[in-house]
Structures are given as structure tokens and as C-alpha cells.
Amino acid sequence: MLQKWHELRRSEEGQTLVLAAIFGLILMLCVLCTVNLGRAVYDKVQLQAAADSAAYSEAAVEARVMNLTAYTNRAMVVHYASAMAMTSYLTWLHFMWTFVKPILTVLKFIPVINTVATAVDQILQTLITVMDWAIVILIPALSANNVFLWGVQEGAWLSTWARLGKSISPEAHSGDSAAHPYHPIWPEMIPAMNAVVFSQTRGQMTVPQATLQTGRLLLNNSQPEIQEARLHMVEIANSARTPWVAYGDNYPSKKFLTISPAARHFFFGINIGIGSLGIGNVGRTELGTFPPGGSAASSKTYGQIWSGQRFQGLAKLGICPACLKGRLNIFNLVAVDDLLGNPSSPRLEQYYVLWRPPKLIEKAIPGLGKALDKVANSVKTMLPKGQRLFAISPYVYFVPNAHVNSRLGMFGPNGNFNQPDVLVGLAKQGIDYDREAGAAKYYGHRFTWNGRGAGTGTVDMGYTDKDWPTIPGLPRQLTHRGLSAFSAAQVYYHRPGEWREQPNFFNPLWGARLMPVMESNVLQRLALGKVQILKNLVMH
Questions:
Q1: Where are the beta strands (DSSP E) in 380-526?
Q2: What's the predicted TM-score (pTM) here?
Q3: Is the bond leading into 357 cis (omega within 30 degrees of zero)?
Q4: Neighbours of 254 (CB within 10 A)
Q5: Residue 505 DSSP code
Q6: C-alpha separations of 298 from 41, 114, 146, 161, 242 in Å
Q7: pLDDT for 55-81, tens place per residue?
Q8: Nearest CA to 310 among 344, 284, 339, 349?
């Protein structure tokens, strides 16, 4: 027995089994760590994808609102152009009626054609009356329609602004579940700044403030930004006119292209050696605005459409290229048709001005003076009837800003040329990570080995309160206990082929894209990149 005992003591068999047991535990722990690390990487990727999706979705909503604003602003421009077109047709009709009426009066005394002349006279008078009252109704309707479109704009902006101020709901992102949703990081601070950055594209800290600001357009407020916005709308509306409305029939050069008296713009003349004599029409219709300063009941607070026709006689003299040149208006008949009371004298909705040449010229041309007298006496009976109310309505306009970087705080202007962006932070809490579905009964990522006589071992890979960084001196912990991910998305303006075009709310060219987090207006204004621990949290 003793011999067998000594042999057993000297035997080296079985020591590999002991080493295998020890290294098996170590290998098991390594495998578990690898699996745990892979799972953490997968969860991090899913969390980052959810943050990117949420940020892009919110930026896309903002882009849609801005494109809606552009479409409605363009509709307003079309309405202004339509109002100018109707006014130009009416001005031209009344202007031509000034010349047709005397001809029909003379034809009524001719026995053969007096019946036809009377019928034509009645038809034309009925047509003019119908057009007068039709435009009396249509012009205010277009103005009211523009005010309605402004209300649609403000409604869209207010609803989007209110949504940005709320925390992201679980339905706004993907990758989580109803039982274990992702949690928004700083759910009050980040959404509030998202809403501020969105509002700052209109120059105000909140959208309700911007709504009140744009409402001052109707009252012609004297603020520089209000005047600039009104002038922008006026210039864009004038650029949308057709050539006939703007200055006559196809007028690309200094020479008139037609001698037809029915054209708004024509000239017919004869050469007399050293010069020329001729007659012609000049027409123009445009939208304008009065200077600020009037009260709410004053016509100076409203916009205006001026539509004018001028019948003129011209004498041109040119003896040699460098000697004597000149141009003399023999006479002018100007018809101006205003939608509201004209601020200059005489204060009428419509008026005619007849410029008389010097008496010497009237005597030199036989019958000219008497003809001009008859025209002056007859034109007053041929003015358009009815007061046509019109106003430049408010609209949502973009406030440009050339800054590249944003300033700190709620009131600082945006960077990135005032193009807005959104910041999203999502976290997967540690308690959720430790209590995954299917592993809850095992208490998450805690693993135990029992080797009985060889000993036991336990490793807990779950999160505890000691695993998250804290800032000394602060009463609450700023970071979430678990995985976190930040993402930023920008609403940008771009015309294909022309990247230098300034952002505006007249062209629907707004889109959404992801952007570097550190370049976000929201992050810069919250100063999250200034504190190193917060910067590490955002960038990790």
C-alpha cells in the first residue's frame, strides 16, 4: 500500500487536466468578453443609426416647410403679376377709348353707318363697365388670397416649431423596442435649441415673434428689415410680368417694332432731313410701395400698382454727330390708373395729365391747340370706375446671415449662412443593456462558474453607477448610464449648377443631409464642444 502511495506521489499523470481546467476558465471568460464586446459594438451601431435617422427625419420636415414657403411665396408673386396684368389691360382699354369715343361720335352723324356706330358704342361701353367692376372684385380677392397663403405659411411654421420643442418620441427612430426604447439625451435642452435655431432663419428667437414681425409688412413698418422684405417682394413680382404688361409688345431694343395704334408701345415717324417727327405710345405697369410712416388708415401703408399709358408727339434733331442733337416732346397725354388713392396731386384713383407744348408750337401747327383742348375736356368722362382695394400682404421671408460659425447662447445668430440644423442625442440605458430579452432570469451579463473542489468564479459585465463619468461639484449626472450616440442634420439650400446662390424662400430648393456634429449650430450655441468631457461624450 505504501509502495502504491509513493508511486502516486511520484507520478506526473493528470497535471495537464488541472492546467486545462484553469485555462478553460480563462478561455471561457475571453470568449464571453469577445461576445460581449461584439454585442456592444452592434448595439452602438444600431444606436447611431437610430440617431442619424431621427436627425435626418427632423431636418427633412424643416426642409418641407421651407419648400412649402417657397411655393406659396411664388403663388403670391403670380397673384401680383395677375393683378398687374388686369390693371394694364384696363388702362389700355380706357386709354384707347379716349380715341375711339370721338370717332364714334362723329360717325353717328353719318346716315348710312350711324346705326352701326351706335351699336359699337354701346358694346364697348358695356365691355368697359363689365371689366371695371370685374376688376373691382378680383383685385381684392387676389389680395385676400395672398393673406390666406400667409396664414398657411405661419401655420406650418408654428406646428413645426412646436414639434421641434418636444422630446423625440420612440416612433421617430428605429432599432429599439417598446419594452426597451432608446432614451433622448437632455430631452429639454437640445429640443429647445433646435426650435431656436429653426426660428432664427427668420431673424427671431421664436416663431410667434417672427409671425408678429412679418405681420408688420401689411402696415409698412419703418424697420429696415421690413422695408427690405417689401422691396424684395415688389422686385420679384415686377420681374414676373409679361413683356406686354411691363412695357408693351416685344420691346427688346430702343426701336418700336410696330406702328399699330392698338399696341401699348409703338412709334411712327417721318424723316425731314436733319431730324424726324413722329407719334407713338409708351406703356408701363408695375408694382410699387409707398414710403413708411403713414398710419394704419392712410393709403401710404399699402402697396400700389401703377399702370400708365402715354401718347406723345416727338421731334428729334441731329445735325451732325458732335454738333447739335436734341429731342422735344410736342405733346404728351398720360393716363395713370392707380388701385388706391394716389398720394400725389390730384388725389384720384385714376387721372389723366395732358402736357401742352409752348404756345408758339401750338400756333405753328394748325389745329393742334384746338385738338388738345377737346382731348383735355373729354378724357375726364372716360376714367375707370370703382375703388379697387389692394395691399402687399405679409409673407415668410428668409433673413440672410454671412456668418460661418454660430455664437453662444439663445440670442446669437446662426452660422452656416443661417441654414438651420438639428441635433439629436440617444442613449441605451445600462439597465436595459443588462436586462436584455432572454437573459433577464440570469441577471443580464453576469456569468458564474462552479468548479466545486477546484473553486468557483463569477464575472459581472453589467453596468454599475461607477462606470459612468461624473463632473465633480455638479448636483446631477449629465451623462446617461449606457451607450450614447449623437447625430446632426442640416437643412441646406442648393441650386444645381450654382452653389453661390443665396438661400431664400422663393425657390423650392431646400433639402436635408447629415452633417458633422461639431459643425452644428445647436451644438455650438449650447457650448457642448467647449467642455472637454461633454465633447468626448458627443464625439465618442
A1: 421-429, 446-450, 456-460, 482-493, 510-515
A2: 0.77
A3: no
A4: 5
A5: S
A6: 69, 48, 21, 35, 31
A7: 999 999 999 999 999 999 999 999 999
A8: 284
